[in-house]
Fold these 4 entries.
Entry 1:
Amino acid sequence: MTRRIVTSQSQSLRLEAASVDGYWDRLVKYVPVEIVAAWVALIPLLETLNTAANWLVFSIMLVIAFVWILRLTGSSYTQAAISAVSFGVWAFALDSGPFAQIPREPAWGSVVLVLTTLVFALIVPKESA
């Protein structure tokens, strides 16, 4: 399975994909699971850093998420941008890094995560292979 979201039948033939990606396929492909997993692994370290360092690590991870997905998809800037935002939402929902120091109701992280994930999957990138 290709990581790139397949939006047309001709694109699926070029990418050797089984079919055009539907809602559930896009939902899965927009979440940069490798980057989220790396962030989860960094959480214990982030707890020892100050706020500025937490924002720096978060910013670096955001850029890495964009570049990583851009590389995996071959140049789908829309998918890479949505995936980078998705990573940011996951970090916010996990109440970790710089977000752990923002006073808020923890339930808001879950609400934002669910809503953005469901809405992002409605977006069909315009780029073609």
Note: Residues 30-120 form one domain.
Entry 2:
Amino acid sequence: MAQETTSTKQCLTCHGTGMTATDYGPLACTDCFGDGKALGLGARLEWRLRAIEGAHRGARGEVGADIVWLVHELRATREALVRILARCQDADESDDAARDVRHLANEALGLYETK
């Protein structure tokens, strides 16, 4: 199976230049951090999780604690899927169950494009 990482694609925000125009002049693209390449799903997700955590840090009541718990659970689940995917990639190609689990885990993680 041919696999390609999603991070080789051009950033759609800056069109691969790494810069975006603002009222204050050109700045590094906030979506690719000036790299010009689209971030993979894992990197985009992690940056979004950090933004959510930052926005709710110090929130009163149960909201802050709920956000911390939810982000922890999501990270733990993704880490488990990465481990499952790694185990399935080591399995023999004739193992149908491993192949199916590998595709399902990759679909959830978005690490590789399938052709």
Note: The beta strands are 3-5, 19-22, 25-28, 112-114.
Entry 3:
Amino acid sequence: MKVPTDDFLITMAWCFLVTILVETAVLLVGLSRRHSVAVRLFAGIWLTSCTFPVVWLVLPPLFADRARYLLAAETFAPLTECLLFWLAFLKGRSFDGLLVRDMIAIVAANLASFLVGEWIW
């Protein structure tokens, strides 16, 4: 197993912060109003914290080319975050437009952070 270098860890930390900022901003606006601002802020930090290490540390060694890695990572992150959010905040609620809005907001947050990451890359 290859140990990450200091440069890699510093880059990862900065990207983690940027991801949290971008995704939290999208979730503050995008998640339905049935969730308090505190829940929306928490979701931006918590959801990213759950998926970011997998996207940065676990998935890259599994894929030889960038396209397959991106497909896996950018599918894994929003699906996992939608599931975690549903389990934490929506389980037991009826399927409605607000639930759909919340899931779209989570996918949009991931897309936004991906696009910012690609722009920086």
Note: The two ends are 25 Å apart (CA to CA).
Entry 4:
Amino acid sequence: MFESLREYIEQVRREGRLEELTGIDPNLEMGVLAELLVHRRREIVALCSGFGQNPTGCRVLINPMNDPGDLARVLGIQQEVRTKKEIISSWRGRYKSIDPVAIQYQANGEILKNVLSGGDVDLNLLPPIQWHEKDGGRFLGTGCVLVVRDPETGVVNLGTYRTQLQGAREITALPLPGKDAWKIRQKYYDKGERCPVAICLGQAPDLFLVACSSFPWNISEYDIAGGLRGRPVEVVKGPMTGLPIPASAEIVLEGEWTLPGEKTALEGPFGEWTGYYASGPSPEPVIEVTGICFRPDPVILGCPPVRPPGALFAEIRVAARIWDELEQAGVPGICAVNMVPGGGGRFFSVVAINSLYQGHAKQVARIAAQCGSGAFMGRFTVVVDADVDIFDTEEVIWAISTRCDPKTDIEVLEGCWSSSLDPVISPQARANGEFTNSRGLIDATIPFRWKKDFPATIRSPREIEEQILTRFPHLFARKSGVKNEID
């Protein structure tokens, strides 16, 4: 596994998948490049540089971990994986066996090579990135890691939240209500105190993945990453906040979240993973940046949300957690879980089961839609039989079309956890702060009561299918733009 973002970059370079690009305009052009690479599931990783007035020599890395083998290495998966299901299954096996390893403080680190404080702090030294055409400003943080410490328990939390440039020494970050950073910040606010915060704009890829995943509240994501690595994550104390920041990080902003009403700035809109600019500009508490730490020629990790299908890792992390939480709830017969790419990693989940009893499919659908990882901003949960390939959207649609009676097999849950990013929340509900939605639960399994009498499925004998593919490979070879099996 990679100790730093630079180790990851060097590995990608050795594999011949790194493209070093100059002359890419950080105003929209870089965002379009990122969207094209993600949508086409390209394995190319682009390192962009040469942004004009850029005294720090800052570069931007886009499209990381969009190759299945690449993602597997970042997650510490040793065996070769070829399909999305294999990655989800392997990742579940990895994190279920994790023994958290506490961080290890170092006296010094690469991140402390350059430290700006006081009047020397100027965020305009960094590339002015505008990812989407109608974004309300420049967003430095997309593949970032926000570090805060719970004032009651002392547990350090890592999370990923969009971060917008608001001035030479001011930024905003947007943790949505119910998210960990929002809850921790509120604890400071309840005491009438500002919330210390550090935002890493470039760090080892495993730290980014654990930061945007869901883990138990009382365990630091740093310790999860240490468990994955089998050794502690090395950190240093942030010069301004004292918060632990990765010793090998590329660039870190330190400061304090101001109190509600003390100082605000308009945050957003921003093109989100839903495929919409769903949340308009809103006044948010400003983070006053008191220090910038950076390595020579630092690298910003750029993972901008794009209109679905989005990044592969977003689908993997949610599917794996829902699968795990179904089993933790004691639900038997779970064969696989998938997040359909067109659902942006959250809106559309599919679960395959071995149907064991009446009501089994509905039980699965309700728990998958409301478990810890499925509850936030879901929309549809579909349950199918094990004979359906849930990683093939056409097969899922076939199952819905032929095994689901809309009158009896579709259930709607109301008043579920959503957010301002949800595009179907009405203007009136937004104005009233009502950020809930409904969920469609679809039972597309063969009716259990008369399972034996259900018409037989047309299936080609597998052995003959393999014979045909082996004898006539030229008939099935794709031309340009081979579709990755991960799709």
Note: The radius of gyration is 23 Å.
